[in-house]
User: Fold this.
Amino acid sequence: MNHLSLSLLLLLGWSSHPIFTAEQPNVIYILADDVGYGDLSCYGQERFRTPNLDRMATEGMRFTEHYSGSCVCAPSRYTLMTGKHIARARAEGQGQQLRHEDFTIAELLQENDYATAMIGKWGLGGHTGRPDLQGFDFWYGFLDQRRAHFHYPEWIWRNGEKETLPDNPTKRDQHTQDLFTNEALGFIRDHRDEPFFLYLPYTLVHAELIVPEEYEKPFLGRLDDKPEKPKPYRILKNGYNRPRYRHAAFAGAMTFLDRDIGKIFDLLEELRLDEKTVVIFTSDNGPHSEGGADPRYFNSSGGLKRGKGWLYEGGIRVPMIVRWPGKIAANSTTAHPSWFPDVFPTLADLCGIEVGHEDRDGVSFARTLLAVGEQKSDREMYWSYNRHRAVRQGKWKLYRFYENFDDTTRFKQALYNLDRDPGEESDLSANHTELVERLAKKMNSLERWK
Assistant:
């Protein structure tokens, strides 16, 4: 057992006062936008390849039962930043605004001498929720969802100031994917000599599928595309801009995203930060069908039911890969059920920071990552969105759909055994009435209408 593992055994529940003398790791948390469970080739995608993410999986740990905090982006990001499930938020939908009293993982790391940056799509408010008021020393990108899904913007935020990009929507010189990656690489270089936390919520592959020709071109004529008539590029007018060849554009967008994962790993290797840096890749929810996307064609849900906007597995089960050379076993896979609220306590543990867990709903999965001690896995996970509710405990998941917004007495629900039925095809509620009653009681206790 190495020194770090021994320290972590003490940290992860064997001592109320953690002893952690190993060097604190850097953390890079990459959050893709609307990438489905089946959109990575290491998760079964067959129509295109994601070689850099595949490499990440062979050098790290692939999670097969990781969940976002919601089936849409803003509430998912709330659960990620705070370590709390969505019933603790002031709203369950897209209108999220963090308050001053909310305490984020970025604030925790900032208080413990980490340089912190948010580069990409924030989605948690532009007033009290602004990134610089929630623990980030530097931020660059978009505050909300409205402009974030147009990839050739006329301006972008830099630390609260609008940075103009003249004629970008017409000339299409600067794609946000390039802008975000260049800023991320610069932040890593600038902070190579101190611990840093880089939160990198990319906007690919949502929502318009407009990418540089070099990424779309390799797929032309290969993916059953029917050409669509192009229109002038517009922002916030007449919906999302659609590509001429939507299948080639989606495959190109995933290739574009994957390219930049490789750039990050190349820089870490160049700066000799590989073994000092935990890198996490995941997605904020399941796949969408906006802007020309075709999740059925690509099997983006990976055989799971539904997609974005639903609390079936296809809407909330997402790919997650964690890489930390020398600490996390290479080419490993885990079926440990985890979700976004778990990230807060997990990063605290990996960074050697003691934090009270009484006001958070997440459970650290650091034991799973480092193969030390016994991992807690029997707690409940909860989701709510619109008229949908879901609770998972162990292999069991209770799904509920209300017929009306203002009537909690009229609903349909089903019980699924996810070990045997990840596609949620067989309702077992009639055979397990006591289990349904127990999970329903938990669900009811969190219901916002009660």
Q: What stands out?
A: The chain has 14 helices and 15 strands.
